[in-house]
Design a protein that fits this description.
The protein has 236 residues and is an alpha+beta fold. Among the domains are: 37 residues, no CATH class; 39 residues, no CATH class; 63 residues, Nuclear Transport Factor 2, Chain: A, CATH 3.10.450. 22% of the residues lie in helices and 25% in strands. The protein is built from 4 helices and 12 strands, in the order ααββββββαββαββββ. The termini are far apart.
Length: 236
């Protein structure tokens, strides 16, 4: 009897007390499912918020998906086409539909080039083509731009630089004219030196002379024209 009772007691145990029975999915399987769902959600969030421009219509201020694509940066195509293209201005790349005139931040001209507002492209000026374009000046391309003082300057076609016409008056005549000028003023000259030619007076070529006056530390500068006239000049 004791043996039967023992057997009956063992056979009457519930699954929770020792037998595995027909249990549901194990805890490990459930954890794996939750982990997979979490990874999928992270991937969706990443691509929605960090993979590029906001084209999903998400209101980032409120965190609500509005359901409408973001069209604030779109511009219509020309030629009657109603299709819209997303503007890429300001992305640091000069895209095919951009140019230096309309998108100067993206389309930057190379050194020595300038952006033509008419042609809307970068142009490298060519000295000698007869057009004084941007980045060309009388001091760098007198063939196209001419000289600032044409009455007393000539264009050197080799260098493209304007040079002052040399006055026909000799250096000896210049020195004599200056000494007579100061002698007429009652001023003694301690020394003088010819500095060169200049267009410093009324677009007329003069020879510049620096004068040291006796009894004074001040140096004066005068110009002598081709006709021998002496003009007092201010030293800049």
């Amino acid at each position: 009897m004791a043996l039967l009772c023992g057997q009956y007691g063992e056979s009457s145990r519930t699954p929770s007390e020792g037998s595995s029975g027909h249990e549901g999915p194990s805890k490990n399987v459930i954890k794996l499912v939750y982990a997979a769902i979490g990874i999928v959600l992270l991937v969706i969030v990443y691509f929605a918020f960090f993979s590029g421009p906001n084209t999903l219509g998400t209101d980032f201020d409120s965190g609500i998906n509005t359901g409408n694509p973001d069209t604030s940066g779109e511009v219509p195509e020309t030629g009657g086409n109603t299709e819209k293209l997303v503007s890429l201005s300001g992305n640091g790349w000069c895209d095919p539909q951009e140019n230096c005139a309309d998108n100067p931040k993206d389309c930057i001209c190379l050194s020595g080039e300038y952006c033509s507002s008419e042609a809307k492209k970068c142009i490298k000026p060519v000295c000698g083509d007869g057009t004084c374009g941007a980045k060309e000046y009388p001091s760098t391309c007198c063939q196209d731009c001419g000289c600032t003082h044409p009455a007393c300057e000539t264009c050197d076609a080799t260098s493209g630089v304007c040079k002052v016409k040399e006055p026909s008056i000799s250096d000896d005549s210049v020195i004599e004219a200056v000494r007579n000028y100061y002698q007429g003023k009652g001023v003694s000259v301690a020394g003088l030196g010819i500095l060169g030619s200049s267009c410093a007076y009324m677009n007329e070529t003069v020879k510049l002379v620096e004068v040291n006056v006796s009894g004074s530390d001040v140096q004066e500068r005068v110009g002598v024209t081709e006709s021998g006239n002496v003009i007092s000049l201010t030293i800049a």
